[in-house]
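wait is this the right file?? whatever heres the structure
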């Protein structure tokens, strides 16, 4: 009888012993589960301190997010301050321009009153004394307007203009038309020089 080699012995030992008769059984069907008999899966436990230490990237993301939030808040506050400063500067410049415009308007209305007064004599000779008196009355009214423009500040002028427009809207529209016509003539005459 021949003796098995070392390799054959190793192979024989590596193979599991198989039973001589193996019977393959069909899997048994499971019985239907009763209602309420199944258990819910247990809830996950909250992360522990150790679990948080195991996520350095998450910690970096949270720190970065907090840094971005704080920087954005600071930048928003800075921009809001700059916008307020710019608005205040614009308001101051607009007020200065309106004050200068008020002074120019008062001068223009004063010149108009003087022109009406000077032309009253001509109106007397060409159309009669009655029409000359109308021109003098208009000149006095316009001169009063010029002095009112000169004496009052912008807020008082705005309030009195609002009151006048509320009380007499038709007169306000007519006055605006006349003033626009006169200013257009004055500007047209000033540009031809």
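ok assuming it is, sequence goes like this
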């Amino acid at each position: 009888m021949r003796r098995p080699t070392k390799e054959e012995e190793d192979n024989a030992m590596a193979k599991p012993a198989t039973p001589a008769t193996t019977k393959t059984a069909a899997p048994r069907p499971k019985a239907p589960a009763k209602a309420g008999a199944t258990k819910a899966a247990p809830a996950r436990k909250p992360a522990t301190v150790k679990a948080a230490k195991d996520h350095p990237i998450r910690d970096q993301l949270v720190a970065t997010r907090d840094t971005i939030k704080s920087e954005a808040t600071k930048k928003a506050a800075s921009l809001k301050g700059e916008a307020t400063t710019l608005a205040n500067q614009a308001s101051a410049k607009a007020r200065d321009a309106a004050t200068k415009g008020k002074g120019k308007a008062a001068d223009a209305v004063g010149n108009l009153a003087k022109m009406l007064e000077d032309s009253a004599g001509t109106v007397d000779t060409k159309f009669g004394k009655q029409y000359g008196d109308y021109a003098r009355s208009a000149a006095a009214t316009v001169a009063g307007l010029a002095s009112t423009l000169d004496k009052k500040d912008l807020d008082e002028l705005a309030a009195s203009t609002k009151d006048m427009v509320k009380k007499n809207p038709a007169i306000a529209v007519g006055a605006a038309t006349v003033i626009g016509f006169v200013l257009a003539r004055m500007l047209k005459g000033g540009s031809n020089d």
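The two ends are 141 Å apart (CA to CA). so i think its the right one actually
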